[in-house]
UniProtKB/TrEMBL annotation, chain A:
The lineage of its organism: Eukaryota, Fungi, Dikarya, Basidiomycota, Agaricomycotina. GO terms for cellular component: ESCRT II complex; late endosome membrane. This is Vacuolar protein-sorting-associated protein 36. InterPro entries: GLUE_dom, PH-like_dom_sf, Snf8/Vps36, Vps36, WH-like_DNA-bd_sf, WH_DNA-bd_sf, Znf_RanBP2. Belongs to the VPS36 family. Component of the endosomal sorting complex required for transport II (ESCRT-II). The keyword Transport applies.
UniProtKB/TrEMBL annotation, chain B:
The keyword Transport applies. It comes from Boletus edulis BED1. This is ESCRT-II complex vps25 subunit. Belongs to the VPS25 family. GO terms for cellular component: ESCRT II complex.
Length: 611, 193
């Protein structure tokens, strides 16, 4: 049976995380899974949960977790296959196993190194137990293989120091890994406590030293040491048949996913197989069973040191050296790339400039989008006619959306690469162009504001159609949104705004309030016009609050406040703070300001004349 | 809604100016030109009312609630407006800066002695009164001056103000401060030099 050959029985009642090695991770779990041993269903493994870890595959039988659960080292899997399922047939994952694998014979006295903590002979580092076989075989600190030096020093594990007391019994890791080397255990009924020879305490059969007095326990007769150690783990019954029923050349098992979850599980399994976590750090695979604790080279193993195999301080130093060298090489490689890029950068900039010129010449006046390539900058000798046409275009169509889609894309790509040549030398004719560029920008902005911008696919009404006064920030945002590419920085925007009155009808001007607020407005919202309007309103009504004025002017209250304060600063009007009311707050909000004309400038005293 | 601003006479017989019926008059104006105009009117109003009622002391507390001597001008029930203490405080500061009031006691800013007559004028009044009542060259206590048996223009004059007036006379040689048993006294001279 293939299962018998590859699978290692485990106690399924132990939670899976407790079965893992110290450096092993549980990756995925799926229940409702049945196992096919070869091509036939494995009778004892029809319903259970499978768990895949970085090192192993676990099957836990849901009905008889104690006796019919097993683990399978991923190292044995040489190939996987996935079958999606059809009608009544469940999705299956086929695992092809390594046909050359020979299970360690039961008679071998293999005591697993990973069971106990051990002290490295070279660096005196105490390596903790519970690591995976590959990781446990070498010192975690200096990388020296354990057995190479310890072989002579430790004649037998079972008589080793008392520090191992109880460690095996309490560690499920130990149990599950131990079982790998054990012969099929006798029935569980044979479990019996072992009496200590010194104090007669009845010890748990798993213990090797007495729990009370630490005296080494005798081997129970007919119960080899190794058996009692693994006794808590119940085992399947002894094999009755040999594995000649299936094809030994192509051993395989199948996982049948009866409750789904197959796809994700398969993905994770494949990833785990690819990662090959069981190989550990720089340790070649297949050496797992190479050494026993006695230092004897087993037939299946090979102790031949790989090229990386080093030991002692020399090994530590050399590995440090190697890693430093690797880092250096990687760094210099990376910088080489960077240097090459720097060499090419100049060419790239030239290319970008050329491209910009061509784009400008073919589609549109470049003044809109790029300061660096104004028409006059194009060498007249080579592209005189196109430059002429482009400048003609520049005066007629300035809208980015009229650009061909490709040109726009290239332009924005260039802009994103930072290749807009903003550091082009400033010369006299540059400044000349700067001025015309501003003019054109102002013209475009006028279109955005007043709706004469008719080149676009859809006629837009203009931001200021409904309103006579608008915040500068709103205009800037709206304009840049309309442009889409080659956005205008605020500094340029402010410059363009200065040219605005020449291109707008009625002229739109910028007004800066005392608080720093900047607004674009039509003449109806100049200070003088508003003051006159406000005065007449106040004359008629006698007094108005800020919000009443804002409503009348159809502007926001904060803007109204700004404008009223400007009028107030002239002394035209004066305020009446309702805080100074004797009773209540007038309109309900105690702090609202009411405005009245300042009629007291030429007030004639009509009270008591001084005596 | 605009009320025609008219002068109004208070129960104490004081004729309030029409500006006292304008709500903005009770709000401190942020515009300096407007505010200085308003402050001038306020000072004139305060001093003329003080003279009318013979009030000498103005405190910020007078604006904090009804019941003070100043209610008739610091509050206008007809238009539901009053002078806030903060506004009165700044008005007092203006009064002091124009030397129409002095802080009394000194070294605080919540209470002033109003100088609706300057100390020189009070000095003249004192001298005229002493001459008319034949009390030159005799020693007068402060109490005899400020609370004479026959009411005089100096009745109720605060001692600090009286002291200022006497100081003015002393400087021109028409008075001399003399210590007496129960405080201080003054002897007034004809001062004809």
């Amino acid at each position: 049976m293939i299962l018998r050959r590859f699978a290692i029985p485990v106690d399924g009642t132990i939670p899976i995380p407790a079965l893992l090695y110290g450096d092993e991770d549980l990756l995925a779990s799926q229940d409702g899974v049945g196992i096919y041993d070869g091509l036939q269903k494995a009778v004892n493994h029809q319903t259970g949960a499978v768990h895949v870890s970085s090192h192993r595959l676990f099957f836990v039988n849901s009905h008889q977790p104690i006796s019919h659960s097993f683990s399978l080292d991923l190292v044995h899997i040489i190939q996987t296959d996935y079958y999606a399922g059809l009608f009544m047939s469940s999705p299956k994952v086929t695992l092809y196993l390594d046909p050359t694998f020979v299970p360690p014979s039961g008679s071998q006295d293999g005591v697993n190194d990973s069971l106990e903590s051990w002290v490295c002979e070279v660096c005196n580092h105490r390596n903790p137990p519970g690591l995976s076989p590959a990781a446990a075989r070498i010192c975690a600190l200096c990388g020296v293989p354990r057995s190479a030096l310890s072989s002579s020093a430790r004649p037998s594990v079972s008589t080793s120091s008392t520090s191992q007391l109880g460690s095996t019994a309490s560690s499920p890791v130990a149990l599950s890994t131990l079982s790998k080397f054990s012969t099929p255990p006798p029935p569980t009924s044979e479990l019996s406590p072992v009496a200590c020879t010194a104090c007669t305490f009845l010890n748990h059969p798993s213990l090797r030293n007495c729990e009370i007095c630490s005296t080494p326990l005798p081997l129970a007769p007919g119960n080899p040491r190794i058996h009692s150690k693994s006794a808590p783990v119940s085992r399947p019954a002894s094999p009755l048949v040999d594995d000649n029923t299936s094809d030994p050349a192509n051993p395989l098992i199948k996982l049948s996913f009866r409750k789904g979850g197959d796809k994700s599980f398969y993905t994770i399994l494949r990833r785990a197989l690819k990662t090959r976590a069981w190989e550990g750090r720089q340790i070649g695979k297949g050496t797992r069973s190479g050494t026993s604790s006695l230092g004897v080279v087993s037939p299946a193993g090979d102790l031949t040191p790989g090229p990386l195999r080093r030991s002692g301080i020399d090994g530590i130093l050399r590995s440090v050296e190697t890693s430093a060298q690797n880092t250096e090489t990687e760094l210099s490689d990376a910088f080489k790339d960077l240097e090459a890029l720097m060499v090419k950068a100049q060419d790239l900039v030239h290319l970008a400039a050329e491209m910009n010129e061509k784009l400008g010449a073919s589609s549109l006046g470049p003044t809109v989008n790029n300061t660096a390539s104004p028409p006059a900058w194009i060498p007249s000798g080579t592209s005189g006619s196109s430059a002429l046409s482009s400048s003609l275009f520049a005066t007629t169509s300035l809208v980015p959306s009229s650009e061909p889609e490709e040109a726009k894309f290239i332009r924005s790509s260039l802009a994103q690469l930072g290749l807009q040549l903003t550091n082009a030398p400033v010369t006299a004719d540059m400044i000349q162009d700067e001025r015309t560029w501003m003019e054109e920008l102002a013209r475009e902005l006028a279109g955005v504001l007043q709706g004469s911008w008719d080149e676009g696919p859809e006629q837009k009404p203009g931001i200021m159609k409904e309103r006579g006064i608008i915040g500068l920030d709103e205009v800037w945002g709206g304009w840049n949104r309309a442009r889409g590419v080659a956005l205008i920085p605020p500094s340029t925007f402010l410059q363009a705004v200065q040219h605005l009155p020449l291109h707008t009808e009625p002229p739109i001007r910028c007004r800066i309030f005392k608080s720093g607020l900047r607004m674009l407005h039509i003449p109806a919202y100049t200070h003088a016009a508003f003051a006159a309007r406000l005065s007449s309103h106040l004359t008629i009504s006698g007094g108005q609050t800020t919000s009443e004025i804002a409503r009348e002017e159809n502007i926001t209250i904060s803007l109204a406040t700004e404008m009223i304060l400007a009028v107030e600063a002239d002394g035209e009007i004066c305020r009446d703070d309702e805080l100074s009311a004797i009773r209540g707050g007038g309109s309900g909000s105690g702090s609202e300001l009411r405005w009245a004309l300042n009629k007291f400038a030429h007030y004639d005293w009509d009270g008591v004349v001084a005596l | 809604m605009q009320m025609e601003l008219t002068p109004n006479t208070t129960p104490s017989g004081f004729l309030l100016p029409s500006i006292h019926a304008a709500p903005p008059f009770f709000t401190e104006q942020p515009t300096p030109s407007t505010q200085s105009l308003f402050a001038d009117h306020w000072i004139r109003l305060i001093l003329s009312y003080a003279r009318h009622r013979r009030l000498f002391i103005l405190r910020i507390e007078d604006a904090e609630g009804p019941g003070s001597d100043w209610d008739e001008i610091l509050r206008n029930e007809r238009i539901n407006r009053r002078v806030l203490p903060s506004y009165l405080s700044s008005l007092i500061a203006v009064l002091v800066s124009k030397e129409l009031a002095v802080y009394e006691p000194a070294k605080q800013t919540r209470s002033v002695l109003l100088l609706w007559r300057q100390p020189e004028e009070w000095a003249e009044a004192l001298h005229v009164w002493a001459t008319a009542s034949g009390q030159l060259n005799t020693i007068l206590t402060f109490y005899e001056i400020t609370d004479p048996p026959i009411p005089s223009p100096l009745s109720g004059l605060p001692i600090p103000l009286l002291r200022k007036a006497i100081n003015v006379l002393t400087r021109s040689g028409r008075a001399q401060i003399i210590g007496v048993a129960d405080g201080e006294g003054v002897r007034l001279f004809s001062g004809t030099k």
